[in-house]
Amino acid sequence: MYPKRAALTFFAVCMGIAAAAQASLPSKVLTELPGIEIAKTRTFTAESLYGYMNGGAELYLEYGFDTLVVTEVVSGGKDIKIEFYCMRDTEAAFGIFSVSRFRCNGGPRLTDHQCRSAYQLQFCKGRYYVSIINDTGTEGEQKTANEIAAYLIRSVADPSFDPVLFFDGGLDDDTMKGAVLIRGPLGIYNGIPGLIDALGEVTGYSALIIRKDQKTIGSLRFDTPSAASEFLKTVNSCIPADTSSINNQSAVSVISSQQIIVTF
Q1: Cα–Cα distance for residue pair 123/117, rounded to 1 Å
Q2: How far from the centroid of its chain's Cα atoms is residue 123's Cα?
Q3: For 183-202, what is each residue's pLDDT tens digit?
Q4: Which of 96, 121, 155 is the endpoint of a domain?
Q5: What is the pLDDT of residues 124-141, one digit of tens each?
């Protein structure tokens, strides 16, 4: 069998959940990879996600989760599991990727946002976050994971997450390697636990957190101007004592009625 079938399964499920995304998904398969046998495919919705990952489901729901398709394949007698998450939007996909990556070890660059280790290859593109897990971490299994990932990436027409919405002019690759996007307390706890006291009670926002010049900088985009105003009323408690002045632009910058940049 070929991964063509797996990819079509992934996309068909997502298209069934969100018809508006249908136009952005591939209308035909670009390539086929031989030597892949599909052993099992399962689909999970928001209601059934708890049955797959127990306590971890809340994190995905906080970011904005639609559907998970888990496909187990066999290649060269080895088992590989592909977790294909359809998230609510591009920010949600990058967000869950940003708090899931761990000890990335480089390797060939397949897309803008990826993380590779011996046993796992993760990437996000468009509204999709994908985790490809192998059993033994051998060079052959890593090569197969790369091939599957490259195939899926080519099949996603949607663009990757762009930090320019949070930081004017965008961010360089090195900064993005450590960037974390959060939408609530679980994302903070999993990605940047040191900010749980500062942002744990904030609601109605997305924030891209980066490290630059030995400072932690957060660009918060709020759902409404009123949510941003509420944050400004309490923002002093989020800033260290030596920079707590609201007039200190290195501490708090109001970019617009719905965007605020804070240096912690």
Answers
A1: 12
A2: 8
A3: 999 999 999 998 988 888 88
A4: 155
A5: 999 999 999 999 999 999
